[in-house]
Amino acid sequence: MSAHPIDFKINPHVFSTPELVDIFEEKAVFQRWLTIESALAIVQGELGIIPVAAAREIHCKAKLECLDLQSIRKGYGKSRNSVMPLLEGLRRACRDGHGEFVHFGATTQDILDTGEIIALRSVVTILYRDLRKVEQICLNLARKHKETPMAARTHGQQALPTTFGLKVTIWLGEIRRHLERIKQLYQTINCGQLGGAVGTMAAFGPMAEQVVKGTLNRLGLEHDPASWHTSRDKIAELSSVFSMLVMTLAKIANEIFQLQKTEIGELLEPSPTGALASSTMAHKQNPVICQRVIALSRHVRALNSTVLESMGHEHERDPRCLWAEWLAIPELSIYTGTCLQYMMDVLAGLIVRSDKMLENLYRQKNTITTEWLTFQLSESMGKMKALEKVHSLSGLVRESGVSLKDAVLADAETGHMFSPEELSLLETPERYCGHSLSIVNQVLQKIAEQRKADPAELSEMGKETE
Length: 466
Known about the structure:
The protein has three domains: about 20-100, Fumarase/aspartase (N-terminal domain) (Fumarase C, Chain B, domain 1), CATH 1.10.275; about 110-360 and about 435-465, Fumarase C, Chain A, domain 2 (Up-down Bundle); about 365-425. The protein has helices at about 20-25, 25-45, 50-60, 70-80, 85-95, 110-145, 165-190, 210-220, 235-260, 290-310, 320-350, 355-360, 370-380, 385-400, 405-410, 435-455; strands spanning about 150-155, 155-165, 265-270, 350. By secondary structure, it is mainly α. Helix 2 (about 25-45) crosses helix 6, helix 4 (about 70-80) packs antiparallel against helix 5 and helix 13 packs across helix 14.
């Protein structure tokens, strides 16, 4: 039975991706826990803490296909512990009483936390891969449209001329900063946990340090001597970075949504051939995917709040906080990766209507470059007086319908200051894009250099210095 859209079978992956769902699928979670138990047993066997034969048997049987899942299911019906029914299944599967050495010295939260880290390491790897693709798509967009003029908007109104390339460059800055954060995250969270019941590692005996380091090393994880059972700042940092990333994607999605409105029509979200956007209005092309991203961003922010609040653990163990985090992380991760996948597809196929951008820029071509006129006049009459004069002339233009150029030339105070040729920029606002081209070129060059230093995969980070 599927009760959540993430698990739907007939209409799957509207708010998820197969790759991310596979990471958090129940059997994948259980297998991670078994893998941790296997690594622990092997190391303890090598150190002589448990019999070598027991370690080998546990390692051999620590696979879901070796366990009686129906029996484990019944166990969960009676138990309130997250891992004990699974571990009982592993113990039963082991021959010759070797199952008695399963989970030797560990505690439930050790397994939950280390399993979560292994999952999150995979999630971060996927996000890095896909975000670099989004960055490359935006680089191509900015390069192609670095001189494509359009109206910049502030307070929801047309403000001054700019270029679409510069708008994309702003997106690129955030994307690059998120990539740097994700690279750092991969190192920050790459730390497992085997602290024992209260973080003292007492049950592991005299060789506790070797047990913990050896086990985590087998799992490809770092070791922190101090338990982080109740220190969740690293998980909260990850959650916050995910939330920030999704908000950047939602901002881009919203920009496309706004600029796709019928009255503007400057951008269009790509639509599959033959796809129906409306059940009754065949003429519409709805920005469905951008809307999904914006909807998902609201859930990510809410889930991030849950994770942040879950930092407030008490004493040496507090399942109230742990379980809240544990419930939030899979959804938060899946939604973040889904937003990224969606925006990768949208941006790769984005329809840029440069003709419509120019048409909209010309809607106020007489007044959209009033900034230029103000600073021309300020040379002779001062900034504030010039601003008042241009404000007055703009009002006259709106009321009478005359062009700003004609209004300036007809005005007793300003008419003698310019020739008609000198005011030609008022009729060609696309010429007043400031240093947009230079800015775009600088950003493109900077990011191209940064990309050269990026590892192809996060797992390669640091290898060149080893």
